[in-house]
Specification:
Layout: H1 3-7, H2 10-13, H3 26-29, H4 34-41, E1 47-50, H5 57-67, E2 71-76, H6 82-97, E3 102-107, H7 114-125, E4 130-135, H8 139-142, H9 145-148, E5 152-155, H10 161-179, E6 182-184, H11 188-196, H12 200-213, E7 216-217, E8 220-223, H13 225-231, H14 244-258, H15 262-274, H16 279-294, H17 300-315, H18 319-333, H19 339-354, H20 369-373, H21 415-431
Parallel strand pairs: 1-4, 1-5, 2-3, 3-4, 6-8
Antiparallel strand pairs: 7-8
Helix pairs in contact: 6-7, 10-12, 11-12, 12-13, 14-15, 14-16, 15-18, 16-17, 16-18, 17-18
Length: 446
């Protein structure tokens, strides 16, 4: 082994060159699945490999290039620019004349801007090169539609425990070949697999670092729980504060609360906080949950959510995080109603589609003699002058909307009482002979 090879990280030294050595992605690579068929036939089309870090995107690109007997040109969107892309295209043209194909692999393709993506788009179209892009971000938002239409998207999944176990065994075997016997204690193995968080690269990096720190006992290095605690101190689970995982987890938290699962709500809350999410962002979303999914079924939910937000602002962590946990549990256990949310959306649609409807005369204010002479406020009946502070038959909507009912409270929690109150008021309306739906046009004249 050369010095350069020895200096390469273990993950690079162990990168599979054949499909049989690749762990995970059975949904794409087992016999009969799309990529397995391509590798078997040796024919590859342009594609985007979308998945979390350490799931084999770069490895798979190399295997596909070898299977299709194409020259692999790898660029990183972090470092490369339009000049590098154009140089790769020129080389691809020269190879094409010689009968050799080119597979252009662009890692983190979502970081390429429009001009950089446009630079190689025509050459994907005319077959000068086959394009494979790798991204951790949703291609629907990060890759140009013109490029998406020419490349099929394949989603890679995080490696499960069995897949990671195979990777770990291969890594330990390689380290033993290079540096002597290496023991991983039974209590350390599951902790190492868990710390990898579905990422083979992370697993091998942690393994290599642990092996370097492991004490030598009985002539062999020994990785135990104490060594792993040192290696993984401060390590965070997979999380991207602006990417797909972030929004997937906040979605899971919201749905867990809506579904009345305090355990799942706490789990996703802690996952987000553990991954580095801003607690104040989480607090804002919890307030949203209180209004959207609980509303008047339990009006206290909004107060609990706001109190948790204030605690986080004033005290920070860990006190604020515990207050957020309290709010999440309360909201998950509270009775649910989206009646206010549905009513708000219905009214917003009515406003958007209804134009600028004038305020009915009896609801207008008359601060001047002129407005009073124009009948502003005429016929208005002061609710507190009536029994139960309710005027039967009165309408406070524009005439065209007088019969609309936007808010329909549920029979859950406090909203059950609101529903009873509204039913009583409508019963009074039905008994009343008072109906006011507009004013005479002459009222517009002085």
């Amino acid at each position: 082994m050369t010095d350069g090879a020895a200096a390469a990280p273990l993950a690079a030294r162990l990168r599979p060159a054949e499909l049989a050595d690749m762990a995970g992605q059975e949904h794409l690579l087992r016999p009969g699945r799309p990529l397995a068929g391509m590798i078997e036939r040796g024919r590859v089309h342009s594609m985007i490999l979308w998945g979390p870090p350490g799931t084999g995107k770069t490895t798979l690109a190399g295997i596909l290039a070898a299977a299709s007997r194409q020259e692999l040109v790898a660029l990183s969107a972090v470092m490369a620019g339009v000049k590098d892309v154009r140089a790769a295209v020129e080389q691809a043209r020269e190879r094409r004349v010689q009968g050799v194909g080119t597979l252009l692999f662009i890692d983190e393709v979502h970081r390429f801007n429009k001009a950089q993506q446009d630079a190689f788009l025509p050459f994907v179209e005319d077959g000068t090169l086959t394009f494979i892009g790798a991204t951790t971000e949703n291609p629907s938002f990060e890759v140009r539609s013109a490029l998406l239409s020419r490349a099929r998207v394949y989603r890679l999944r995080p490696l499960n425990e069995e897949d990671l176990g195979r990777v770990l065994d291969r890594g330990r075997a390689r380290l033993e070949e290079e540096g002597g016997a290496l023991e991983i204690t039974p209590d350390a193995r599951p902790r190492l697999l868990g710390a990898a968080d579905g990422d083979a690269r992370r697993l091998l990096n942690l393994l290599e670092l642990a092996a370097d720190l492991a004490p030598i006992t009985g002539g062999r290095r020994r990785i135990d729980a104490e060594v792993l605690a040192e290696v993984t101190a401060g390590d965070l689970r997979r999380f991207d504060k602006g990417g797909d995982v972030f929004y997937e987890q906040i979605s899971a938290l919201h749905k867990a609360v809506r579904g009345s699962s305090p355990d799942a709500g706490l789990y996703w809350l802690v996952r987000m906080l553990d991954g580095g999410a801003d607690p104040l962002y989480v607090a804002r979303r919890v307030v949203r949950m209180a209004s959207e999914d609980i509303g008047n079924a339990d009006p206290r939910a909004l107060s609990v959510a706001l109190d948790a937000w204030h605690v986080q602002e004033r005290l920070g962590s860990p006190e604020g995080e515990l207050a957020l946990a309290q709010a999440v549990v309360y909201l998950a256990c509270a009775p649910k109603s989206n009646a206010v949310y549905a009513a708000f959306n219905a009214v917003r649609e009515a406003v958007r589609s209804g134009g600028s409807v004038e305020v009915p005369m009896h609801l207008r204010n008359a601060p001047t003699r002129l407005l009073a002479a124009m009948q502003h406020g005429a016929g208005y009946r002061y609710a507190h002058d009536w029994p139960d502070a309710y005027v039967p038959g009165e309408s406070y909507l524009p005439p065209a909307l007088a019969d609309r009912r936007f808010y329909a409270p549920t029979d859950r929690g406090f909203e059950q009482r609101l529903a009873q109150k509204l039913a009583w008021m409508r019963e009074q309306d039905a008994k009343s002979a008072w109906q006011r739906w507009g004013e005479d046009e002459s009222q517009d004249e002085v």
